[in-house]
């Protein structure tokens, strides 16, 4: 049984730099490689540091969203500010969210772990709610004891 909670969240905005994922949505290995390559790039080219400079907190968002029938993946931060070359301002709705908490050895491992638990276990077990689309995010919240910790936030509606 997956360990998850249902939490009410206020609406919030994430400013992100993104990439279109070209792999078929059933090609898990292909999607993971594309995400990994993207994160290596934003860490090396200063994009993530640019985002952190306008953030309202220390959280790093790994956002997945379908936009115009394309699978998009973003590096983002919670902010009300904008940057001239940012890819997207992502609006997360006020409402109920399925939340999965976890920790792992790296940001990438954390995101993969949380995504797997959330979509593979928690959502199927949460019989009173459904994910009906919209942005979802793995949220890196910090480090402790040499591990990265965070949460997966998936907006849901009552069935």
Element-level helix/strand string:
EEHHEEEEHEEEE
What ranges have pLDDT less than 50 throughout 5 or more consecutive residues? none
Classified by CATH, the class is Alpha Beta
Strand content: 35-45%
Specify the helix fraction band. Answer: 25-40%
Question: So, CATH architecture?
Answer: Alpha-Beta Barrel
- Look at the structure and give the mean pLDDT: 94
The CATH topology corresponds to Multidrug-efflux Transporter 1 Regulator Bmrr, Chain A
Q: Quick one: CATH superfamily?
A: Regulatory factor, effector binding domain
Spatial order of strands in the largest sheet: 1-6-9-8-3-4-2-5
Helix/strand structural class: alpha+beta
**Mind describing the biggest β-sheet?**
8 strands, antiparallel
Shape: globular
- Tally of separate helices: 3
Compute the gyration radius: what is it?
15 Å
Based on DSSP secondary structure assignment, what is the total number of beta strands?
10
Distance from first to last alpha carbon:
20 Å
How would you describe the overall organization of this protein?
This protein is of the alpha+beta class and 159 residues long. The protein has one domain: Regulatory factor, effector binding domain (Multidrug-efflux Transporter 1 Regulator Bmrr, Chain A, Alpha-Beta Barrel). It has 3 helices and 10 strands; from the N terminus they run ββααββββαββββ. The strands form 2 sheets. An 8-stranded antiparallel beta sheet has the order 1-6-9-8-3-4-2-5. Strand 8 (136-144) and strand 9 (147-155) form a beta hairpin. It starts with a strand and ends with a strand. The mean pLDDT is 94.
